[in-house]
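Hey, resending since the last one bounced:
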Amino acid sequence: MNTDSRTAAKTAEAPPAARPDVPARVGAPVTVLLWGGGLLLLLASVAVAVTIGPARISVPDVWSTVAAHLGFGASDLSPIRDGIIWNLRMPRTLLAAVCGAGLAVCGTVMQSLLRNPLADPFLLGVSSGASTGAVVVVVLGVGGGAVSLSAGAFVGALLSFALVLLLSHTLGGSTDRVVLSGVAAMQLFSALTSFVVMTSADAEQTRGVLFWLLGSLSGVGWSEVALCSAVLAVCLVVCLAHSRTLDAFAFGQDAAAALGVNVARTRIVLLCTTALLTAALVSAAGAIGFVGLVLPHAARALTGSGHRRLLPVTALAGAIFLVWVDTLARTVLDPQEVPVGVVTALIGVPAFVLVLYRTRSTS
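The structure tokens again:
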């Protein structure tokens, strides 16, 4: 073991209080309070967000409808109001929560894995690949109507990530090569998307595709909620199982290897996990930016850098954030709807500038 590795290993093994670059550990009571309070706030946010809109609906109406559809009693609401709650607003709000949680978790993992505070879930070119897959299906009609926009986006996202893995492996597999490969794939698929739209799409198709590319949760149903929730649950379990490994990665690959971590295998597992989750979310809701970039920093300020505490808090923060962003997007210019990605960008850009400033101050 060389001198740098021994030094990194000692630093990683030192107690948090002795490390100036890591916030003090949060005690168990505070952690339980954060998790419990975050979960209650998420449930309350979902219940209140569903009531907001042109049709007058109260929180008791929401609980009554949900209970009735789950088999606990009967609802006295009219079929129209029941349908507004159960078939329109509830799946959209729940998918917003799932997307916010998933993107925030992916951002947290990427920032630790790549040791880059400015990394986000779309760094691997997944969103650009999904955009290409979506426009190929919608504009070129690939699949003859048997393939949906979401399916095309998912396939495109996986193809883009496969290209990133191939390029990074060919170039040596280091962290900076992964980032550069992601940038190259992002530019390639963005160019392909623009080419297809400009040469083959009419005005109506272009408007629809661009609206989806900016992030949209309109028209989603329970099937999207179930699929994305299942993928989120599996990927979150995988990330939590690697929480100690992510703690080691925060000090660099040499330190992680010195502590017995299989760096190459772990990196592949976590990159594939985050790419799969991002692909599923993007295929359902489009590219919603800045959630995975900003929310991990906000959660880290509350919990410190320990990923066993950080990941659940980040997921809850991302879910609550996107529930209210989506509510704002669909109501602020009613009856016209604003793409969710536009609202997250308007909120996220100032926060991103703050992250840049803090990164410069600590560098």
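Residues 29 and 35 are 10 Å apart (CA to CA).

Sorry for the duplicate.
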